[in-house]
Amino acid sequence: MRWWDIEAVLALERELFPDDAWSRGMFWSELAHARGPGATRHYVVAREDDRIVGYAGLAVSGTASDDGSDAPVADVQTIAVARDHWGTGLGSRLLTDLLRAATSFECGEVLLECRIDNVRAQKLYERFGFETIGVRRGYYQPGNVDALVMRLTDPSAPTTP
Ligand SMILES: CC(C)(COP(=O)(O)OP(=O)(O)OC[C@H]1O[C@@H](n2cnc3c(N)ncnc32)[C@H](O)[C@@H]1OP(=O)(O)O)[C@@H](O)C(=O)NCCC(=O)NCCS
């Protein structure tokens, strides 16, 4: 994803996350950290012809402490597929790309939050080996919807989505 993709991404974002869409500024800020030697973000778009039909992003931060490892931790910041492409495997391809990026950042684990009512996304993550490790009460506002916190412990391990 580059800055010139942001308008098309924003249109999809508003359609797919009507309650809590990211702002233009949030995408600009993420992309500002996505290039160069100190990059901590990886953002990707999927195109069909000239149309953007999906996008995803990963952030790398801190270090895992509970297992004593110094490896950085990756967070899935966002993943979305245009509705008319759902069920075609595109979500799986985007997630595969993020996990490859997590591996090249040498992350020991990948975390994400997912709305508790977003069963479709949870199934996608579970197919890749993510497990639920906690619940954040009222994480999504408005609506006071809980988030599941999910974790994949070895992003470099082969997956069978
Ligand atoms: C969640 C989301 C990214 C999933 O994307 P997707 O492209 O539908 O995901 P996939 O196609 O890889 O997987 C969905 C289904 O298609 C099936 N599928 C995978 N590859 C396939 C293929 N090549 N052909 C046909 N079906 C396939 C999968 O088995 C899966 O079925 P299941 O749900 O019964 O297990 C998408 O629904 C979305 O953008 N939702 C709105 C935004 C959102 O909620 N994002 C997540 C926030 S936590």
UniProtKB/TrEMBL annotation:
Gene3D superfamilies: 3.40.630.30
Occurrences of domain N-acetyltransferase (ranges): 1-155
Xref: InterPro entries: AcTrfase_RimI/Ard1, Acyl_CoA_acyltransferase, Bact_Acetyltransf, GNAT_dom
Keyword hit for Protein biosynthesis: no
Superkingdom in the source lineage: Bacteria
Keywords: Acyltransferase, Transferase
Pfam families: Acetyltransf_1
Entry-linked PROSITE patterns: GNAT
Name of the molecule in the record: Ribosomal-protein-alanine N-acetyltransferase
Biological source species: Streptomyces viridosporus T7A
